[in-house]
Design goal:
By secondary structure, this protein is mainly α. The chain is 71% helix and 7% strand. Helix 1 runs antiparallel to helix 2 and helix 5 crosses helix 6. The N terminus is likely disordered.
Length: 150
């Protein structure tokens, strides 16, 4: 593919705009850059793929940052804060939960996201399971020896 000098400058401007919005973590700036440089960013499949991945990562990071302080938060409130449609936010949160990138459930009846805190494994519980397993092995070994005696 052959580019003229003007196309190269425009492509560089597009990349700068995307990089600036990514550095600022601004979805609004990112979307504006996508609209402004639609031709430069949409013509090449590889660039388009990377731009889509960047947008997806930025959206996930912004959603995680927004819901972090909450235990229960309305999806509509999240959508207002991030300035995106409620349906898109709900779909993305659902995908993040299924991909285990976020712990929680969506209560669609109430229109809320319930965020779970990451719980550490209980050492006493795992030790008790290990003790039960070893005790079971000892009982089986004693049973086998008792069978040989009779």
């Amino acid at each position: 593919m052959k580019y003229s000098v003007g196309e190269n400058a425009s492509s560089l401007d597009a990349m700068r705009a995307i990089a600036k919005s990514n550095q600022a973590r601004s979805l609004a700036e990112f979307e504006e850059a996508l609209k402004t440089y639609q031709k430069e960013l949409g013509d090449d499949i590889i660039i388009q793929s990377h731009v889509n991945d960047m947008y997806d990562d930025m959206l996930q990071n912004n959603l995680c940052r927004i819901v972090e302080p909450y235990e229960v938060v309305e999806i509509e409130h999240i959508a207002k804060l991030i300035d995106l449609p409620v349906g898109l936010v709900e779909t993305k949160l659902s995908q993040m939960i299924l991909d285990k990138k976020m712990l929680g459930i969506l209560d669609q009846g109430a229109g809320c996201l319930e965020v779970f805190t990451d719980t550490a494994d209980d050492k006493a519980y795992s030790d008790a399971l290990q003790t039960i397993h070893h005790t079971s092995q000892v009982v089986e070994a004693l049973f086998e020896k008792a069978k040989k005696l009779y």
